[in-house]
Each structure stands twice: as C-alpha cells, then as structure tokens.
Amino acid sequence: MKITDVVCHVLLAPNYDPGFTSSAQDSFLVVVHTDEGLQGIGESDVNPWIAKACIEAPGTHTMGLSIKDMLIGEDPRDIAAIWRKLYRGSAMNGRRGAVINAIGAVDMALWDLRGKIEGLPVHRLLGTKRPDKVVPYASLQPAGDSFEAYRDALCASAEKAKSLGFKAVKAEVTMNGPYAHSGLRESYDRHTEVVAAVRKTLGDEVTLMIDVQYLWEDAATCLSVVRDWAEFDCYFLETPIWVDYLDEYAKLAAEAPMRIASGEWLSTHHEFEALMDRGKIGVVQPDVGRVGGLSEARTVCDMAADRGLTVVPHCWKTGVSISATAHLAWVTPHCAFIEYLPPQLCLETLRKELAFEDFTLENGVISEPSRPGLGFELDWEALEAYKVA
User: Fold this and answer.
1) Cα–Cα distance between 25 and 11 in angstroms, integer?
2) CA distances, 331 to each of 39, 132, 133, 294 (Å)
3) Three-class SS string for the chain?
4) Do 126-379 and 3-119 fall under one CATH topology?
5) Residue 54 in contact with residue 7, Cβ under 8 Å?
6) Tell me, what's the pLDDT at 177?
7) Angle at 314 between CA 28 and CA 204, to 5 degrees
8) For residue 346, what pLDDT is reported?
9) What pLDDT score does 209 carry?
C-alpha cells in the first residue's frame, strides 16, 4: 500500500467572530489517500492557512523539503519512519510550531488509516488498555460583556454540565490579561468571586479545574491571588503564566495550593521535557495535533509517567481531535481526564456539525471506542459547506 495524495482542507464557520478567544471557529483537516482506496483523516489546532502552506509548499533543498512530496509513495503503515522523515526533511522550516502542528494532523491521519487497514480501533494499536474508564470534563464557556453576565453564564454552564452527568468541569476565569473575555478588565478579587460562584453551583461532588489563560506575569502576583483559592478545592490551575516563563512556573508549582497545568501550545516532546523538568508542572497537557500527532503525544505521556506526573490532554477542536484524544486516554492510565464538549454545551458551529465521535457519555464516563481507526463519522457535506481553501 502506498500514499497517493495528501489533501488539505481549510474550514471556517461563517459566523466566526475574530474578537472571540476560541480556535474552534476554524479547522485544518488533512486527508491521506492510498492506492487501495482507503483514507485517513487528521486535524490540528493551528491557523489552517498556515498549516496548509506548511504541507503543500515546495522544497528547494534537503533541509526544507515539501511535506506532501515526502509523503507520496510511502507505506502509510510505517508511521514512525514517516514521522522521522518529515521532521528531519522539514527541519529548517520548523522543528517546532506550525510545521510540527501540520505534521501532527498528518500523523493523526496515518493512525486513523492504519486502524482502518487493520480493522482495529487506534487505541488497540497504541498500547494496553487502561484498567479503568476515561472521565471527560466539560469546558465551561463564558458569555456577556460585564462581570455579572460572565459569572452568571459560567454558573449556568456549570449547572448544565452537572445535568448532563459530568463529574468534572473546567471554568475559564479570564476577565483580565492578554486573552480577557470581551475586553473585560476586572480585578483579581472579581476572579476569586467567579471561582467561588462556580464552586457553589457545582457543590463538592464535582471536580473543578480553572483556566486563566496566561493571566499573570509572574509567580508572586499569581500566588497573591490563588492562595485564597485553596478553599475551592481546585484540581488544577491551567496556564497561569506565559508558557515561556519556566522558572516562574517552578516557583509557582512549589507554593500553589493546587496542581499547575500547562502544555497546550507546545510542540514535540523536547519542549515538554523542559516544561516538566525546569517548569516543574504537575499536570501535563499535550494537544494531540499541536504536539506532533498521536506519536509524539504518546511519547509525552510516557515521559510524564516516568516523572510520576498526571496527564490531562488539551483539546479544543472538532470530533476528529476529540476522538484522537480519547484513543490516547484509553492507553494512558495516568490520564486523569480528557477535555470534551457535547453539542449541548458547544458554541462553535464546526464542533457541532463536522464530526461525531465513536463514544457516548454515560454516568460521567465515556464508552470505549470500537470502530476501526479513530472511529468518528465525518460529515462531508459540512466539510464542503465550510471549506474556504
């Protein structure tokens, strides 16, 4: 079997809002075709126009080859060899960032394809199934352009997540900083008020995680606020400081009353090694597409296990990436939760319409994926409707 074509799709919801802090309004899909009629599909959380160029751009020398050209003619089942070929052949173009994000979509597609070739779900190919169930958490999305509206929207979403049976939720509490919702500039005390309100809504039986989206510049400022959050029993605090400030992460991890989580933007296990060993985080958050695909995500999970760290993957795209994340979790015993939003909690069009996962949520856990490959069903009509390049 040989790869005969690699087709890139840039998708954009017509109702997208450029002022909205959500990368789920667009999508980058890769479809890998073979000479035997089978195809694999992958996705990555990256500017889709940039990723398309990363794959389709022609190469002019051996250190910056075309990813698409390197793929044509390869046996799609030899995923490890293909990853090395793409990484080394495109090294001068990337080694990190968008090039690796694009390779991540290809790698995801190759695992989907291999599962279809062998008639097995991808998690059966990745490793031994974990002994317990996979627990998803719902990411609560705020709304409104005032403190009261923001707080009330999060609490309403928390109540809805409870009614759907979620055992864990993550609240985005970002009313200041570089990614403040709707341009809000609320005090840190107001952030504490929101965390308290969400915890009260959830009660003590639901796990609460908090995402502040790089709110603080340093550990000292962060600690001056989050020390008061000990009473809310937060499972983790996500991306409290800019991702490059590893020494500040280490200071924070040593004193914060909850685990510190990070990694959503990182590519390759090399960046995660620094985040774990120098940044001293407690929860490792690889995004399957961005990190370089299921192959690199698996390596990161193994590194976390060696260090006794918990994995909670990041995932903010469609059912394609959600499915890949679920398969990763099924072979990762130290993966405590995965990020998952059912249609009832989604705001973004593509998340609601593009792909449908091969699992269901029941009693707070998800069922084991059983179809060959990644198992999702892609709505090809939706793909054509939202394709812009």
Assistant:
1) 9
2) 24, 10, 11, 12
3) CCEEEEEEEEEECCCCCCCCCCHHHEEEEEEEEECCCCEEEEEECCCHHHHHHHHHCCCCCCCCCCHHHHHCCCCCCCHHHHHHHHHHHCCCCCCCHHHHHHHHHHHHHHHHHHHHHHCCEHHHHHCCCCCCCECEEEEECCCCCCHHHHHHHHHHHHHHHHHCCCCEEEEECCCCCCCCHHHCCCCHHHHHHHHHHHHHHHCCCCEEEEECCCCECCHHHHHHHHHHHHHHCEEEEECCECCCCHHHHHHHHHHCCCEEEECCCCCHHHHHHHHHHCCCCCEECCEHHHHCCHHHHHHHHHHHHHCCCEECCECCCCHHHHHHHHHHHCCCCCECCEECCCHHHCCCHHHHHCEECCCCEECCEECCCCCCECCCEECHHHHHHHECC
4) no
5) no
6) 97
7) 140
8) 84
9) 98
Q: Which of 163, 21, 121, 4 is nearest to 74 (CA)?
A: 4
| N residues, the chain | 389
Q: Report the relative pairing of strands 26-34 and 3-12 from DSSP bridges.
A: antiparallel
Indicate the average pLDDT of the chain: 97
pLDDT on residue 19: 86
In the prediction, which pLDDT does 347 show?
A: 85
Q: Which residue's entry shows tokens 């370089």?
A: 292
CATH superfamily of 126-379: Enolase-like C-terminal domain (3.20.20.120)
Q: What is the pLDDT of residues 129-174, one digit of tens each?
A: 999 999 999 999 889 999 999 999 999 999 999 999 999 999 999 9
Strand 168-172 relative to strand 136-140, pairing: parallel
For 4, phi then psi, to 5°, come to -110, -20
CB 37 within 8 A of CB 104: no
Domain boundaries, given as residue ranges, for the chain: 3-119, 126-379
* Structure-token match 């620094």, residue found: 274
Residue among 130, 137, 34, 50 at smallest CA distance from 94: 50
CATH number of the 3-119 domain: 3.30.390.10
Does the pLDDT at position 228 exceed 90?
yes
Q: Which of 100, 37, 122, 60 is nearest to 272 (CA)?
A: 100
173-207 tens-digit pLDDT: 999 999 999 999 999 999 999 999 999 999 999 99
Instruction: Tell me: pLDDT of 341 over 90.
Output: no
